[in-house]
Amino acid sequence: MVVPRILFWYRRDLRISDNKALIKSYSLSKALTSIYIFDKNYTLDFNAPSRYWFLGDSLKELRSNWEKAGSRLIIDSGEPKLLIPKIAKLIKANYVAWNKSIEPYEIDRDLQVEKELEKSNIKVINLWDHLLIEPCLISTGTNNPYTVYGPFYKNLKKQLFEPSHIDYNVNDLRLLNLEDLPSEVAEDPIIKKSHNHLDNFLKNINFSGNEICPCKPGENNAEKLLNNFISSKKLINYDSQRDFPSIKGTSYLSASLRFGTISIRKAWAKTIQINHLTRNKNSLLSIETWQKELAWREFYQHCLYHFPELEKGPYRKKWNNFPWQNNTEWFIRWSRGDTGIPIIDASMRQLNQSGWMHNRCRMIVASFLVKDLVCNWQMGEKKFMEHLVDGDLAANNGGWQWSASSGMDPKPLRIFNPHTQTQKFDPLCNYIKYWIPELSKVNNSEILTGDISKSERKDYPNPVINHNSQQRLFKSLYAEI
């Protein structure tokens, strides 16, 4: 019996365990080869130094894991529509397998690849892997996609406990004894040069924040982060600690989930496991609070899938008519962390230096850019994607539209006072003083109110705006639409 050869195409699932399309492929054949393509038409993975670093190091580990299993990870660069069929035919693959995507470009690209493969009678295996539930399996009572998070979460959680609807069991399959390419194919110039693509990519990594970035690349590090989140009791204290940026109270798994170095099912399964082991009400609350954060990620993924127009503009169309001021100087000062508002500047400096920002701070700086500086939320969305190690189109777009009140949010207007937020979530100013050393000797009471004397400011700038007056301005502009 001839064993079919399968080409597995990696995208946002950079792991060998609990990978649905890979598990399906392995069940059919051990003549299994994998490929990753630096897609020249998809720049989101490469336009942020932090993601460039995370991707490169994750691929390096992944390549090693495939070699240990007896096969290889081919790495190439170019256009998948041309390269996938070309390499599939070169290695005489009977199947090409991948996990489905939700972004508009990715959906269109995959359809084109599938059409090209059909011309060569190469079969396709494509499954949903990076979601807890397939988009077609969850809808409102009128069979429409959800546009409000609350009802979505209620339905999602109900279905996650009904095995007939969803399988969130974790399969820790480890690839073993794979059959590598025949020697004559392995010597082909296209295959032989694949090592060079990754090596050259790694040489060009220019990210200085890798030591202080709390997100760590690779499947092994993702496992460690998840286990630490559980064993250090961060999960069962999550509700009380998650909003304080000076406390290491979050999982730091956002980039791991974004690049798929760990599966969303494994993260969810851990919450179920711990939930069964505790009866403490506060612990149970914390577990559900983290589940809700995972569900927010899910919600935004589903929203982009069902409403691809979100990529280009606001969900609430009236925001297309908003009279943004888009003051260039103010935007630059916000981007640099030089606004003279301590919590804003600390947050932006954390982003610029580490490639990551605490979630509470993301909401604060987004509200400030849109509703204090009156800059279009899409400017901030773009800035975040240029720096965030966990930069994801669906989550980033969803978060910015939430902050701008232009998205799927039943509350019409939400404005964060940066000084009030500081008093609530950085009352000892530890976070601010860490990222803004020029304020390290300033009295906390001055930082908390924003009333820092001129003599104390020294090298720290005066506030770029007055929050109360800008809030009144924004509300008046909002009333016009």
Report on the structure:
- By secondary structure, the protein is of the alpha/beta class.
- The chain folds into 3 domains: 1-130, HUPs (Rossmann fold); 131-167 and 207-306, Serine Threonine Protein Phosphatase 5, Tetratricopeptide repeat (Alpha Horseshoe); 317-480, Orthogonal Bundle (DNA Cyclobutane Dipyrimidine Photolyase, subunit A, domain 3).
- The protein is built from 23 helices and 5 strands.
- It has helices at 20-28, 49-68, 80-90, 104-119, 149-160, 183-186, 189-192, 194-203, 219-231, 238-241, 254-259, 264-277, 281-306, 328-336, 342-354, 359-372, 377-385, 393-404, 418-425, 430-435, 444-449, 454-457, 467-480, and strands spanning 6-10, 32-39, 73-78, 95-99, 123-127.
- Helix 2 (49-68) links the parallel strand 2 and strand 3.
- The N and C termini lie far apart (69 Å).
- The mean pLDDT is 94.
Specify the CATH homologous superfamily of the largest domain. Answer: DNA Cyclobutane Dipyrimidine Photolyase, subunit A, domain 3
Q: What is the domain total for the residues?
A: 3
- Based on secondary structure, the structural category is alpha/beta
Provide the CATH architecture of the largest domain: Orthogonal Bundle
For the record, the CATH class of the largest domain is: Mainly Alpha
How is the quaternary structure best described?
Answer: single chain
Any low-confidence stretches, pLDDT <50, length ≥5? Answer: none
Biggest β-sheet: strands ordered side by side in the sheet: 3-2-1-4-5
Number of helices: 23
Number of strands: 5
* Mean of pLDDT: 94
Write down the secondary-structure element order.
Answer: EHEHEHEHEHHHHHHHHHHHHHHHHHHH
Shape: globular
Q: Roughly how many Å is the radius of gyration?
A: 24 Å
CATH fold type of the largest domain: DNA Cyclobutane Dipyrimidine Photolyase, subunit A, domain 3
The percentage of residues in β strands lies in 5-15%
Largest sheet report: 5 strands, parallel
First-residue to last-residue Cα separation: 69 Å
Share in helix: 40-55%
